[in-house]
Amino acid sequence: MQEKAIPIALLKRDIIGIAKSGTGKSCAFLLPILEDLLKRENKNNSILRALILVPTRELAKQITQAIDDYSKYLDIKRVAVFGGISNKEQVRKLSNGVDIVVATTGRLLEHIKNNTINLSSVEKVVIDELDTMLDMGFLEEIEQILPYIGKNRQISMFSATINSNIKKLAKEFLKDPVVIEVTNQRDHVEKIEHQIVLVDEDNKSELLSYLIGSKNISQVLVFVNRKLEADDLVKNLNLDGLKSSCIHGDIRQSSRALALRKFKEKELRVLVCTDIAARGIDIENLPCVVNFSLPETINDFTHRVGRTARAGNDGVAITLLSVKDYKLMNEIEKELMLQIPRVELVDFPTKEKKPRTKTREKKSIKDKKIEAKQRDSKDKTKTKKPNKTKFRKTTKRG
Fold it and tell me: What InterPro entries does the entry give (predicted)?
């Protein structure tokens, strides 16, 4: 992504970048922004030049940290704008002047309405994880924000997939965009070691603890679909002696940040999260991801397993599969061109009724020849004899 996007961005062309998480998108859009800011002569008074919109607080913090890393020896001022915390510090930084704002849409709209931010000077706009933002229902908010930005702007949209809403948004706000697509999502998924463990739904929690302990997994990110499911699972894991915590939408931002920090520093062994809360989470050398519950979409599956095996490292993705998800798992494998073997553990035999599957018996060549002869003989007996036309005899009279 960096190789293809950076030269286009430096030409100030609008971009639609299609690539999965972990392909270096952050660097692809941050370096051109920093390069442009570096050329500015008047650095005494920072003027807002770049706006980066993201779906979650975690991703906002991650990108802000990336800005700090890349601009370590530059005089760049940035601020992260998101909800869940007091906005007083954000207002103070904005009033003192900043070069880059990284924001979630909801809190940014609050600042716009309160006149604590002016977007008219923004020249570069980046919308990251756009497909996720649309899935979360932020299309209307994005459409409200973009008109506040001056006409002399360059917009880059990055998404793992492209759909009709993304095309509609691009048609409305982008000028002759360059479309950059980097690898298919299945390319990365194939490099991950996948495992499927068959288990009854009621035994999933116990099996997860057994797998973490027996495989001696030092660090594991576990995905669930519901907030209550995450809370209950953390309780069970801690009772089993596995230090765990969770992050989801109902948990305060400070608690989410603390849990993520402890997990990265390996003070926690297990971090349980929902899909939305996990967007933007980047953990270096994460060895294992577990699908405790199968996600509802193939795109979410690729986002989940993509948390491991990043930057060329090894990683394992384990899916705990119960009968109710057999059909969806088959669809995921078909779409991603995967064939993952199923394993059933001796200590956790499955009792749920499995769907019937048609299996063809293997027949020998001799049996196949006999069947072919029988079909031929039946076909001959079925052939109809031609009808004989009866002619009437006539005699000529002279």
Answer: DEAD/DEAH_box_helicase_dom, DEAD/DEAH_RhlB, DEAD_box_RNA_helicase, Helicase_ATP-bd, Helicase_C-like, P-loop_NTPase
